[in-house]
Design a protein that fits this description.
Elements lengths: L3 H23 L4 H8 L3 H8 L7 H5 L1 H16 L4 H16 L4 H9 L18 H20 L15 E4 L9 E3 L5 E3 L2 E3 L5 E2 L4 H11 L6 E6 L2 H9 L4 E3 L6 H11 L5 E4 L8 E6 L2 H9 L3
Parallel strand pairs: 7-8
Antiparallel strand pairs: 1-2, 1-6, 2-5, 3-4, 6-9, 8-9
């Protein structure tokens, strides 16, 4: 398994750095000056100068790479372009190269031929492809879960029914478009336990809350449920969140929808429980990492 980001790190960046280092040296920069401008060590510059770094000839021969190296070399030498601006320009070119059919996409599919075996209309590097969108959601969710697993004190916020951190694709319509943790997150002997990798379609309860929020104008794409304490709601409000109460004894979708219509900017939803219903707080956010960061601020 190889990700396109590995090709960027292993082939694109060394090639472009080598070309830029050579360009700046040709303009009269010393080895230490090149190192400072490119943010690399002098030993790395020496390796570039002596050809000790492998250059991808297809990347080096691309006219867009050559034009950008010349533009950046001219700007850096004249002090008209900062290293940060140069980095942004390279980032833009990388994204262009990753798009369907372009250079990095081609190199990636050659390295992983299976990527081309999903049908003629499928392109993993199409930014709008369903697979790429889903993988971004799952990647964000994994990072959020990793944050929670290493958050001391998070287990104290896990309700008896367990927590679940979920995230959905941008055009989510039902629970199959929402990813979560199979079996939920539990406190096992004081340790946050995530029993399996996140998947789509495995969370109904928290997923329905996110979907109901979005159907009634909310912008959140991720959420988590934690134990209810009035003090927690107060603390979240103090931290700038807008809170809204809903009644979970009825239809969740309708109750959440009504709460969002009353408080469109709500990022905290809560219900105080009832017969056979555990009181819970739902923290909403634009992505799984943001939600996890909010939870970390509570412990």
């Amino acid at each position: 398994m190889q990700f396109v980001e590995e090709i960027v790190v292993d082939e694109f960046l060394p090639t472009v750095r080598s070309l830029l280092a050579g360009d700046l040296r040709d303009r009269g920069f010393t080895q230490s000056e090149v190192a400072e401008v490119l943010g690399i060590s002098q030993s790395a510059v020496s390796k570039y100068a002596h050809g000790d770094v492998t250059v991808n000839e297809r990347i080096a021969a691309d006219e867009r790479v050559q034009d950008l190296v010349d533009e950046l070399g001219t700007g850096l030498a004249a002090g008209e372009i900062s290293p940060v601006q140069a980095l942004i320009e390279l980032e833009i070119l990388i994204r262009e190269f990753e798009s369907g059919g372009d250079l990095l996409a081609q190199l990636h599919e050659e390295a992983v031929p299976e990527l081309a075996d999903h049908g003629s209309s499928f392109r993993v590097h199409d930014p709008e492809s369903d697979l790429r969108t889903s993988e971004r959601v799952l990647s964000s969710l994994r990072r959020g879960l990793g944050m929670l697993e290493t958050t001391s004190g998070f287990t104290g916020l896990i309700p008896a029914v367990g927590s679940n951190l979920v995230a959905c694709i941008p055009d989510a319509e039902d629970v199959d478009d929402v990813a979560g943790v199979p079996g939920r997150i539990f406190d096992v002997k004081g340790r946050t336990t995530v029993p399996a990798d996140p998947e789509f379609g495995v969370s109904e309860h928290v997923a329905r809350v996110v979907l109901a929020t979005r159907r009634h104008g909310g912008a959140a794409t991720a959420a988590i449920n934690i134990t209810y304490e009035p003090e927690l709601v107060d603390e979240l409000i103090e931290r700038g969140h807008v809170a809204a109460e809903f009644d979970e004894s009825g239809d969740v979708a309708s109750s959440v929808g009504a709460a969002i219509e009353d408080e469109p900017d709500a990022t905290v939803l809560y219900q105080t429980g009832g017969m056979g219903i555990e009181p819970l707080i739902y923290v909403l956010g634009p992505d799984a990492e943001s939600v996890a960061e909010t939870i970390r601020s509570l412990v």
